[in-house]
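Hi, here's the filled form for the chain we discussed.

Project: internal
Contact: R.S.
Residues: 111
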Amino acid sequence: MNSSELIQKQLDAYNAQDIEAFLETYSEDVEVFNFPDEFIYKGTDKMREVYSYGWKQNPDQKAAVSERIISGNTVVDKEHVSGRSNGADINAIVIYKIENSKIKEVYFIKD
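And the returned structure, exactly as it came back:
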């Protein structure tokens, strides 16, 4: 699976709110940051907790990608998240670093 296919699989699982398929795309020791270097959390156990809770609170939440840039093992998506329970959409740039066919690092840049 190439970088673009991996990130698309992750996005499809996100939109289906399928936690197992979503986590399958990540390294067990994935690190998540607010860009450039504000550490948020590490590991798929914490990711399971964060996303399971978020999807429970926002069952209609979906992400759409308007632009995708691929450079080797780095994928940059421009995302629009809608369907949140509070009615507030989110625009973000998400940088995915891939290692050994898994997402190893994620960096969020939010509007």
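Let me know if anything looks off before we file it.
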